[in-house]
Design a protein that fits this description.
Elements (H helix, E strand, L loop, with lengths): L5 H9 L8 E12 L22 E3 L5 E5 L6 H18 L3 E3 L23 H17 L9 E6 L2 H11 L7 H16 L2 H6 L4 E3 L13 E2 L4 E3 L16 H5 L7 H13 L3 H4 L28 E4 L8 H8 L3 E7 L11 H16 L7 H17 L6 E3 L6 E3 H23 L3 H9 L1 H4 L5 H8 L5 H19 L6 H21 L4 H8 L1
Helix pairs in contact: 1-13, 2-17, 5-11, 11-13, 11-14, 13-14
Length: 519
């Protein structure tokens, strides 16, 4: 059963100020497309800034895969305002292009040329480019253009201090890291709720299903788009191979030391599969950074990650080892096609509530059996989450309950946490979002994935995506004159280009020596 946390919620109610400074940040990926809906073949626009050094606008896997990054803030409206201004700013610079509104690139065809992102001539820039070459050679290029939204979340240090004292938990030196790892384990146990509610990729292009042994029977529409009637987020399915490496590498998020050691082992351990790809081609060009299981930390695709801001030249492993976990990154959000910026305020409000709940619930240490059980739940939700009377495992004793039954237990707690947060903010936004979203369980047709199938599958998905892209582009252009961040964004373009030039000028090592120094 799910733990009764009524006493912990009562404690929160008597100490509401410890939740006053929740910090959030958003990273939104989106493909640049042509006006006809096809992939843009243009390089990352110079007028947007350097993707190597720009603080808030960069590229992900390919030249046309933008990533918008907001600064962290303890005000939801400020985060969303900055995100909207980033979209507005870019829209004004790419007047002949649009931003693709779906996670899955249905606009891809066999002739599409996907250009791997480039970051200039510096050693740092070459590392980023070769890492992406490695991703292409290991997994393919199309799969790496699948886009999502990442939600960065941190609880105030006052919360962790008071929680440790009151509940007698995590009495070690790094109790904050222990608390975040507890949250992460609970996210694996219960986080399937996020793709159930907000998954928006129940359909994929035929290119994603080639040479796959599918145990689910896909249907297809008139444009050869494959879908499952009860699916929620195929972006999180085995087309991305999300969970297998975590299991194989025995990464269980039980304590920071073992997590970092497992991650370090994966970065240093050779992989027979990737050795067969080769490190360099016949001309001496790198095909990947190394032939190990992971080229670097970022290659471990997970639903949630422990994170820490890094110092210059520092790896994530070193940052976490030296200073502990600072925040968590939620990576299981599809792009919300019903929002111009890919995420809505209601989603953020619900995520806040759920992540606080994950911090309060005691999460037992995980082993492979536990982890496999949780991934089985995720798979069931991903492929057939909206199936009538769907059941999943509720604990390690293989006890099952329906989603409706589980949601009632969870939302009973979420409502109580919502009341506390609303009292802090002197409004009722959190309570209202609870009342709205609890209905998604009894009425699955309200979920994003069901809405996606209703509005886009009967039509032409590519045309629907282009329609939304044009609609949102017009909205961004209309916002241009009220863009409160326009000046600093224009300044950041110039600053980022100067930073890149400086980095390239100050390189003194050859690339081979630079690579050897990083080993």
């Amino acid at each position: 059963m799910i733990q009764d946390i009524s006493k912990k919620i009562s404690w929160l109610k008597t100490h509401p100020k410890i939740l006053e400074s929740i910090f959030r940040g958003i990273e939104r990926e989106t493909l640049r497309i042509k006006k006809n809906g096809n992939f843009s073949q243009n390089k990352h626009p110079f007028s947007i800034g350097s993707p190597l050094t720009h603080q808030w606008i960069t590229t992900d896997f390919s030249e046309n895969l933008l990533e918008f990054i907001t600064p962290k803030s303890n005000k939801i409206d400020d985060v969303l305002s900055f995100l909207k201004d980033l979209h507005c700013f870019v829209a004004s610079k790419i007047k002949n292009e649009r931003l693709w509104p779906f996670s899955i690139p249905y606009c891809y065809d066999i002739q599409t040329n996907i250009q791997i992102a480039e970051y200039g001539s510096s050693n740092m820039g070459k590392i980023k480019n070769i890492y992406r070459r490695g991703l292409k050679n290991r997994y393919g290029d199309l799969i790496n253009t699948v886009s999502g939204v990442h939600y960065n979340f941190s609880l105030p240090i006052k919360f962790w201090e008071n929680y440790r004292k009151t509940n007698g938990k995590n009495n070690n030196v790094d109790y904050v890291s222990a608390g975040y790892l507890n949250l992460i384990r609970n996210y694996y146990r219960f986080g399937w709720i996020i793709p159930y509610l907000f998954g928006a990729s129940p359909a994929v292009s035929s290119f994603f299903l080639k040479n796959k042994n599918q145990k689910y029977e896909f249907k297809k529409n008139q444009e050869n788009i494959f879908y499952l009637p009860w699916a929620t987020s195929l972006r999180l399915s085995n087309i991305r191979s999300t969970n297998q490496k975590i299991i194989d590498l025995n990464i269980m998020f039980n304590d920071l030391e073992s997590y970092l050691q497992s991650l370090k082992n994966a970065i240093e351990k050779p992989s027979e599969e990737f050795i067969n790809i080769g490190l360099k081609d016949k001309k001496g060009n790198f095909k990947q950074l190394n032939t190990n299981i992971l080229q670097m930390e970022n290659e471990l695709y997970t639903q949630i990650r422990p994170k820490r801001n890094k110092k210059y030249g520092e790896t994530l492993i070193d940052a976490l080892k030296n200073r502990g976990i600072e925040y968590v990154e939620i990576r299981s959000l599809d792009i919300n096609p019903f929002s111009s910026v890919g995420i809505s305020k209601n989603q953020i409000l619900l995520l806040d509530l759920f992540l606080i709940w994950c911090a309060l619930i005691d999460a037992p240490k995980m082993n492979k059996t536990n982890f496999l059980l949780s991934t089985e739940n995720w798979e069931k939700i991903i492929f057939e989450g909206r199936k009538p009377n769907q059941t999943i495992y509720i604990n390690n004793n293989y006890e099952k309950k329906t989603l409706v039954e589980i949601s009632e237990i969870i939302f009973k707690d979420l409502n109580k946490i919502a009341l506390i947060l609303d009292n802090i903010n002197n409004n009722s936004l959190y309570q209202k979002v609870c009342q709205k979203i609890i209905l998604f369980f009894k009425k699955p047709e309200l979920t994003y994935s069901a809405q996606f199938l209703k509005y886009f599958i009967p039509k032409d998905i590519k045309k629907s995506g282009l329609y939304l892209a044009n609609k949102y582009h017009k909205k961004f252009i209309n916002r241009l004159y009220s863009n409160t961040h326009k000046k600093i964004l224009e300044e950041e373009v110039l600053i980022s280009h100067e930073k890149q030039k400086k980095i390239e000028k100050e390189d003194i090592l050859s690339f081979e020596d630079y690579m050897n120094n990083k080993k």
